What does this fold into?
Amino acid sequence: MSDRVSEVRQDREHACRYAAAVLATAIEHAVDERGRADIAVSGGSTPRRMLELLAVVPLPWEGVHVFQVDERVAPDGDRARNANAIIAALGGLAACLHLMPVVAEDLPAATRRYAAQLPETFDVVHLGLGADGHTASLVPGDPVVKVRDRRVALTGPYQGHRRMTLTRPVLDAARLRVWLIAGADKALAVEHLLAGDPDQVAARIRSSASMVILDPEAAYR
It folds into this structure.
């Protein structure tokens, strides 16, 4: 059994609201303590709503730097890009959006440049969970899952795209990990995550200082 703390909210909207509140608290604490908050967020439809809710919270946005957990290698403006939701929600608020350079001609060099921008330790990292047990773009069977000597890496093709992703050492080092998971198709993967199943990619991420926020469909099989 892992030591991740799980919270089941009454529906998807309330799960998003709770996740936004947890992120807001972490941001406020970081700015109060260090004058700056470094956060990393994942993509998807559920976190899009979380970001919309976070954007209306009166935070010290001038001290907030937003990074991406992962991104599809796709052109700017492509509907598949995670950056779209981040720009729409936080583009006019945060001190800086550090978007992954997935349109660069030399992608390996671009991953190194992005890695150089990362803070030593993230204050909070938001994560999702795939039905196959992946998180970030750490996908079962991809060699990137085992990368320990790079902070940012490129994956192989997955669901039609290569990805740029933060690696496990970066996710493990964060002061707080906030998982937001919704939908019945995730319920089995959630069970394995909360059990700390070593065969699941997501469950290998550090479990301490981690909160798993669920809607009822994701919480029960």
The helical segments are 12-34, 45-55, 83-90, 107-117, 168-173, 187-195, 216-219. The radius of gyration is 16 Å. The chain has a mean pLDDT of 96. The longest strand covers residues 37-41.
